[in-house]
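Today's session is about reading a structure prediction critically. Students often jump straight to the picture, but the first step is always the sequence itself: look for stretches that repeat, for charged clusters, for runs of hydrophobic residues. Only then move on to the predicted structure, which in these notes is written as discrete structure tokens rather than atom positions. Here is the chain we will use throughout the hour.
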Amino acid sequence: MTTRQLPFANYQVTIAIDETAARVASDQPFAVLSSAVVGGDLRATRHIVNMHVRKGYASENPENDLRAFAAQLEIAEPFVGMMTAAYTHNARVAIESRDGITVAAIVTAGLSNLTAAGFSAPMQILVGTINTIVLIDAALTDAAMANAIITATEAKTLTLIERAARTRDGDPASGTSTDSIVIAHTRRGEAVRYAGPATVVGHLIARTVRDAMTQSLIARESSL
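Below is the predicted structure for this chain, in token form.
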């Protein structure tokens, strides 16, 4: 297992990565917005879990599997949980700071389920995913959190384009059909209203997502 402490003011945040999961634990709650399997309705949490599942994983109750895994980690409170068949030990972390704002991105990248939004037809749900966790030491409005998801997704897609990723039909890939994302912030300081690429926070989000995703893809390729 590898662990890393984040340089967030007044928050003790630990990222832990191994073959079972990439996870975040904080001593204080983050404000969150996510598309996660578990905790997608939460507005605050201290725990974010990206759990590894086997290739070919299929369950009628993935929420129960995530909750059982969280219990093994001794998480006894509401948490945000995602799952991926990508090898979580290939998760990578990128951190950048500017003008008093620090952003960290944790990305796991699986490419077995690539799609092109608007081109690929509805398909069987598979478990190859690009899961992204963005941690921000700042205060974002609800609108800025939604804006952050857009910025992170643009950065993800641009990274795939740069690496010439293609769907099975040969179209440029925009992501996978099961990508998930979590935006979490500390609520520190004055409210940030926008998080597009032209803002400081958006710039940091895009840079860290691209960096972490590129590193994760390189790690994936080297392990094939």
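Discussion point for the tutorial: The radius of gyration is 16 Å.
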